[in-house]
Amino acid sequence: xxxxWLVRHGEAAASFDQDTDPPxxxxxxxxxxQSARYLAREVPNHAQLLTSPKLRAIxxxxxxxxxxxxxxxxxxxxxxxPSPGExxxxxxxxxxxxxxxxxxLPESVHDWQRDIVxxxxxxxxxxxxxxxxxxxxxxxxxxxxxxxVLQCVPANGSVHHLRVDHDRWHWVQRGEMLESVVN
Length: 183
Hints:
Elements: E1 2-8, H1 26-42, E2 48-51, H2 55-68, E3 73-74, H3 87-99, H4 107-122, E4 127-131, H5 133-144, E5 159-165, E6 168-173
Parallel strand pairs: 1-4, 2-3, 2-4
Antiparallel strand pairs: 1-5, 5-6
């Protein structure tokens, strides 16, 4: 059995259709610090710290890693959903994806989802994962068995605690949710 904390990155300094790897905004840095304080109270000292290779996820994890005097290990399995390379295509594309079903998306997305599920299933120690909106939605879909892409709307900097016991996954505590979808 493993406890896992999924942390959505703080607010980015640029939107999804403006930059493929923006840093955190000032507000995002505040959200990262707030998440770090929360995690410091909840997460055991020996927890493993993983992060998406995206800058906003790394910067969200850095305050907690600094509090623990530990290192963030980059794990590309927790990167955001593969998307079109052209910035001008991304906004319309993500809006269509969020209204759709996982089964309607290309095989590359299914491979990405399988990698996330296998990675989480293999964790043997308490782990904090700094990641993205649709990674959390992938986990939620795995748990609900529902094919809708949009399972939840996790707030920037929110922390979601789940417990994995072999094939049984369940939420211990859900983090803050928002009205809007992605920035």
